[in-house]
Fold this protein.
Amino acid sequence: AQSCAVEVIKNAVPADNTPFNFTAVVLGQPEPFTLMDPDNNTMGVAFGLNESSITENVPQGWAIESIECRPNQGDEALISFSINGPTVTINCLDSFGQGTCVFNNVIATRNVPTLSQWGLIAMAGVLGVVGFIVVRRRKVTA
């Protein structure tokens, strides 16, 4: 008996073999699996005729840039996808439905503290006053 199947592909930037953990819920049972880009970045997941899901447990320091799911050519009426955050819900309408989901991740950017234009002007003024005081003290002691 044929079952719906989705090929899950992990695409990470940079591709440094960071392990990305996933949970597929098939017939109500969680089935964990791990993908790493580039060495082990593809996994086929088979589903029955029901609504199933695949969730990525995003590692700390990483963010999901996008998730792209599509039925294979000719299978548009057999399988459909909906994406909500890190979870893809798969609705298998026919046992021959096939598709692909690509999970794209990037390293999360960190906010670097900076000064605004006015903060920079104020800081330059404060440093100028401190420099002036230091130069005057040196002249007085000399």
Notes: The beta strands are 4-13, 19-26, 29-36, 42-47, 51-57, 62-71, 79-84, 87-92, 98-107. The longest helix spans residues 117-141. The helical segments are 117-141.
